[in-house]
From TrEMBL:
SUPFAM superfamilies: VC0467-like. Belongs to the UPF0301 (AlgH) family. HAMAP family: UPF0301. Pfam families: DUF179. InterPro entries: AlgH-like (IPR003774). This is UPF0301 protein LJ725_15490. It comes from Reyranella aquatilis.
């Protein structure tokens, strides 16, 4: 199909985990869930970084939405350095609107005020994060960063996406790389930042 990547090339529904050698400080120790990856580029949400001093309840107040006490203190994710004033909701696929992007692995992404209203009144998705901003790559940019070993790829997992212990996610994602390796751990010391290209 024109304009789409082959399934083997897509990273949709997987995590990009910043390698220890990540040169961009905005992404150091970040875990990015990839929502879109095709010939037009890639879009992801950082799932282990929050916007400081901005709980979800404050966003609801600013939007004039009644704040449910159960989520008032929830963090708002810093989804990435692109369009940081725009809110996107990364959520479980049990909720869908016309504008919702369904993602492999039972996940979805919706950018609308309506989903926030539905979340506030209890009719929204079972699990969700509001993120301000997103991570974006132009066509071919992410492929170059992968060749330069800036990112490690880990299979996506809703449990890790929605884990509220944000500080542990990077290590937990790295630990997933170690499954099947001797000792069951990914050894950072053995990871070479060299690209290995001739």
């Amino acid at each position: 199909m024109p304009g789409s990547s082959s399934p083997a090339a897509t990273l949709v529904g997987r995590f990009l985990v910043a390698a220890p050698s990540m040169p961009d400080e905005r992404f150091q120790k970040s875990v990015v869930f990839i929502c879109k990856h095709d010939d037009d580029g890639a879009l992801g949400i950082i799932v282990n970084n929050k916007v400081d001093d901005l709980p979800l309840g404050q966003v609801y107040k600013q939007l004039g939405i009644a704040v449910p006490k159960s989520v008032a203190d929830w963090p708002v994710l810093f989804g990435g350095p692109v369009e940081t004033s725009r809110g996107l909701v990364l959520h479980s696929a049990d909720y869908k609107r016309d504008e919702t992007l369904l993602i492999d692995g039972g996940m979805a992404l919706t950018a609308s005020l309506e989903i926030l209203k539905d979340m506030a009144d209890g009719s929204g998705p079972k699990k969700a994060w509001l993120a301000l901003g997103h991570s974006g790559w132009a066509p071919g940019q992410l492929d170059r960063e992968m060749q330069d070993n800036a990112w490690l790829v880990v299979d996506g997992d809703p449990e890790l996406v929605f884990d509220v212990d944000l500080t542990a996610k990077w290590q937990r994602a790295l630990d997933r790389l170690g499954r099947g390796l001797p000792g069951g751990k990914f050894d950072l010391a053995s990871f070479s930042p060299q690209s290995g290209r001739a």
